[in-house]
Amino acid sequence: MAEFDQSKAYAEQEEVFFDDGRELELLHFVYGKPDIEEIRGNPQKVLAAIDEFARTKKYLMNVGEDKGKIVTELISEVKPETMVELGGYIGYSCLLYADAVRKAGGKRYFSLERDPVFGAVISSLVDLAGLGDFVKVIIGSSAVSIKRLHTEGTLKHIDMMFLDHYKPAYKTDLKLCEELKLVTPGSVLAADNVIKPGNPPYLEYVRSSVAEKRKAAEDSSDESNPDARFADRTAKQYANRQTEEKLQQSRGNPNLIYESKLINSYEPSGVPDGVEITRCTGEESS
Ligand SMILES: C[S@@+](CC[C@H](N)C(=O)[O-])C[C@H]1O[C@@H](n2cnc3c(N)ncnc32)[C@H](O)[C@@H]1O
């Protein structure tokens, strides 16, 4: 793994590091740039302006350049027709990946974001970057949005998914996507923050064999539910409203075969982190 380039480090992460007005400050910063007319229509230049804000003004909880590159390289290889991200924040990963999906010949990028103000920031920057016809920003809790998009027929299959939202929901949302047959053999998943802060239940799930998942499905009971324990722990760690989330338990599809590996990298602040890349390679008959 290459060394982290300290000259590109984001500003330090403060105790309160989002939802304190900085997301709207970012919009003023970007639209106030003297070269705004050159930025317009160019996703890479919008990303550079966001990075500049996060380096010189305030920290932003973006995936950042290093981990972002892992996913854009995967996009060029997989060439997804449809890509979905869970957790859009101010649109950094959305701009970076939607640009890559469009360049790879894809059709649609869905950014699912729960917070309506953050969602409005994403839409504004997506429009500025000229990606308005390609990206659909969906406001609401991921599980509710996934179900609705599936029922409407707007989302028929997920070729690639980036998971970067409420950590305990990675596993439950993946299982929902399996149950709805949105994730099937051929789907590829990229999960952020599997080192910092970490996501043991998700990693265990995507690294389990079909036999192990079938057994876990049989054994699961409310009292011993490790997902509930993880959600409880997460709620105690983060005293903010990111944690006020009811997890929806889906059956999933334990018959799906995954090949999963961790790619080590860095947060944009330089803190070590990793992205778990998971490929669904087949399905065992039940
Ligand atoms: C780490 S940020 C996402 C960063 C973004 N992917 C990027 O790299 O530019 C996490 C985001 O997930 C959103 N979020 C949390 N729980 C969610 C849920 N259940 N559904 C949709 N969005 C959620 C938060 O509001 C926050 O904006």
UniProtKB/TrEMBL annotation:
<dbReference type="GO" id="GO:0032259">
    <property type="term" value="P:methylation"/>
</dbReference>
<dbReference type="InterPro" id="IPR029063">
    <property type="entry name" value="SAM-dependent_MTases_sf"/>
</dbReference>
<dbReference type="GO" id="GO:0008171">
    <property type="term" value="F:O-methyltransferase activity"/>
</dbReference>
<protein>
    <recommendedName>
        <fullName>catechol O-methyltransferase</fullName>
        <ecNumber>2.1.1.6</ecNumber>
    </recommendedName>
</protein>
<keyword id="KW-0808">Transferase</keyword>
<keyword id="KW-0949">S-adenosyl-L-methionine</keyword>
<comment type="similarity">
    <text>Belongs to the class I-like SAM-binding methyltransferase superfamily. Cation-dependent O-methyltransferase family.</text>
</comment>
<feature type="region of interest" description="Disordered">
    <location>
        <begin position="267"/>
        <end position="286"/>
    </location>
</feature>
<dbReference type="GO" id="GO:0006584">
    <property type="term" value="P:catecholamine metabolic process"/>
</dbReference>
<keyword id="KW-0489">Methyltransferase</keyword>
<keyword id="KW-0128">Catecholamine metabolism</keyword>
<dbReference type="InterPro" id="IPR002935">
    <property type="entry name" value="SAM_O-MeTrfase"/>
</dbReference>
<dbReference type="Pfam" id="PF01596">
    <property type="entry name" value="Methyltransf_3"/>
</dbReference>
